[in-house]
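Chain A, query sequence.
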Amino acid sequence: MGWHLVALKAELEAGCPSGRLYGEAMGTALAVHLLKNYTTVKSALSEYEDGLPQYKLTQVLEYIQIYLDGEIKLAHLAALVGMSKYYRKVG
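Chain A, predicted structure.
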């Protein structure tokens, strides 16, 4: 069993103490793993070489600090900086 499955299983068994964002991130990692290893059509996933511009990263970090005790969703963080939660750099 892969590390991501072990981590997701442990999180579920513990009652999801890390919240929805952790579950969404692990679900995305699981989906990428399944697509990468078990599809018949292989696509070339490029390596991510750069990060968010500093001002967007600052927006996300400030939002997380403000709403740390609430339900933080990956989709909302992405929308905050005008991105899709599935964004990946192409090229």
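The helical segments are 3-13, 20-38, 54-66, 74-80. DSSP finds four helices and no strands in the chain.
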